[in-house]
Amino acid sequence: MPVYATLVVAAAETSVKAPNPILPAKNEIIWGFLSFVVLFALMAKFAFPAVQKSMQARTDRIRENLDEAERVKTEAQTILDEYQRQLTDAKNESNRIIEEARQTAEQLRRDLMERAETEVGELRQRSQEDILAAQQRAMADLRAQVSNLAIDLAEKVVERNLDRDTNLALIDSYIAQVGSTS
Description:
The chain has a domain of 126 residues. The protein has three helices and no strands. The radius of gyration is 67 Å and the shape is rod-shaped. By secondary structure, it is mainly alpha-helical.
């Protein structure tokens, strides 16, 4: 046999005799199994209840937080509803105040118009009375001037002086006749 083949056969025999790197030795398997059982028992006895207790506490805490969040959400919704109701009430109140102000302004405008019309009517009445009084004064002044002129003219015409009271009475009666015809 060639040397090369001998070496291959020898290497193959030695490789069969070498331990499998994937499978552990039997004593390692026994110690590993015993360690696993002891560790599992300890964990089941002590760690698992503690973990379960902390998980339950966390679950309870989350549940409480969710309940608190729901309560806060309900409270916030209640506050929002109250705020919206107050806002609606405020809008209604402002509309009512504006409407009252409009009505008050309209009533004030009507009152001012009535007062102005009354004042205008009174002013017209006083003006008419003033005009009538001025007209009567003017007529009285005119009568006085006409009577003075008539007396002066009559004196010149008659060239004698009649009694002044008689002359005035004659002139007044004449003016009254002329005034009643015009």
